[in-house]
Amino acid sequence: MSSQINQQYRVTAGGSLSGSIRVPGDKSISHRSIMLGALAEGTTEVTGFLEGEDALATLAAFRAMGVDIEGPDKGKVTIHGVGMHGLKAPEHDLYVGNSGTSIRLLSGLLAGQSFDVTMTGDQSLSGRPMRRVTDPLALMGANIESHDGKPPLTIHGVTDLKAIDYPLPMASAQVKSCLLLAGMYAQGKTSVTEPAPTRDHTERMLTGMGYPVEVNGNQISIVGGGTLKATQIDVPADISSATFFMVGASIAPGSDITLLHVGINPTRIGVINILRLMGADISLANERITGGEPVADIRVRYAPLKGINIPEEQVPLAIDEFPALFIAAACAEGETLLTGAEELRVKESDRIQVMADGLQALGVDAKPTADGIRITGGKIGAGEVHSHSDHRIAMSFAMAALRAEGTIVIHDTANVATSFPGFVELAASCGLHIELHHD
User: Fold this and answer.
1) I need a surface site. Which of 84, 93, 130, 368 has the fewest CB within 10 A?
2) pLDDT, position 396
3) Cα(36)–Cα(14) distance, rounded to whole angstroms?
4) 1, pLDDT greater than 60
């Protein structure tokens, strides 16, 4: 946890968003650049690295396992790879803070090492489900101890993992990536079949570093025993972080903002698709490919939004963006219905319940369901909201103040630093009336 536990935002009502900004680097790609760069032959140079607590937790874990990593310095990181079998046993437990990506992906990567390691996390992470990765890893022959399916995890190194053919019970990029990373250390071909597409950053980066990945429809396969070659990685700006500004500009009259160099990977653009279905004015310019990942500049201008039934096939493509989308729904005309999103209940918080509680506290008609929520657009009042230390909840309610009738106070905002260091300063620079307080 950050040192300022009782950090809060006070956001004064009104305002609009304008200007051109670059939000911090993509969290998913930042994590993977460290993991794969560490296992590569040679030196990997990363630019645009997200210096948030989650990605720094991954960086610290590899340093603890003997990898020489320079930086980060203004988003630049240099990783001196040790090769597939060059990691060393850490002297202490690996503490990964609030990072579900770190613990789940590292479980796969560490399952095939020759040493034992224990991974721990903060209170929030210690309540998150890990059987979704430990169960299939056990099928591969991994030896992992958990606390009733939750962290801490102790991984006993096994050098003879077996390849498996695994149908994913849920659409999860973390589980898929975990098994692909373990598959590099398994004998034979490991295949993962997805029920719906999820973010494919792992597959793209593996391919970019010369490790073949076979994609056949919704099945992704990898053969063990290969090698990774060092490369240069320019991390795009994170579409999840850009989302708060996309929603803010969409709901605040007079807004016109451009978000620069944002990753628009097709497995991540659910938020753009959903906002456009609601009537948002979003245009993409300067589309290009960098390091195997598509990027663009995204311009968003205010437009009146309409409530919609969110298409279920878009849900996995926008899973981290729903807290912000719920704010858009609260400002839309009519009713917005989300179904098929049970996954939101086991994120950094139960995002369905926590968002519903916060919206209700501000006078919005929001009714949670088992797998989603029903939100009727209307007025957003003043009030106090508890983020339950969930970074995305905190930033979403900050943007709600653009359309609120009075000040919104958001409690427990220290964890915003996990994904978006500098959020308050950047948001204030484009027109959000936000102040940081410590109580």
Assistant:
1) 93
2) 97
3) 44
4) no
pLDDT of the residue at 171 = 84
What pLDDT score was predicted for residue 12?
98
What does the mean pLDDT of the chain come to? 94
Helix (H) or strand (E) holding 250: helix 239-251
Pull the structure tokens for residue 37: 């760069």
Q: Quick one: DSSP state of residue 437?
A: E
Taking the C-alpha atoms of residue 107 and residue 42, their distance in angstroms, rounded to an integer, is 24
CA distance linking residue 93 with residue 84, whole number of Å: 21
- How far apart are alpha carbons 144 and 265 in whole angstroms? 33
Helix/strand/coil for 227:
coil
Task: Supply the pLDDT for residue 106.
Answer: 97
CB 322 within 8 A of CB 396: no
Residue count of the chain, please give it.
439
**What's phi and psi for 278, nearest 5 deg?**
-85, -5
User: What are the structure tokens assigned to 366, written together?
Assistant: 């929001």
Task: List, in order, residues 6 or more apart from 114 with CB less than 8 Å away.
Answer: 85, 157, 159
**Structure tokens given for 108:** 């796969």
Catalytic amino acids?
320
For 352-389, what is the HEC assignment? HHHHHHHHHHCCCEEEEECCEEEEECCCECCEEEECCC
d(CA 48, CA 24): 7
Residue showing tokens 């926590």: 354
Indicate the burial class of 75 (C-beta count within 10 angstroms; 0-12, 13-18, 19 or more). middle
pLDDT (tens digit per residue) in 336-359: 999 998 888 877 678 999 999 999
Contact 410, 9 (CB under 8 A): yes
Position 5 scores a pLDDT of 58
Mind giving me the DSSP string for 9-28?
EEE-S----EEEE-PPBPHH
For 294-345, the DSSP string reads: EEEEEEEE----B--BPPGGGGGGGGGGHHHHHHHHHHSBSEEEE-S-GGGG
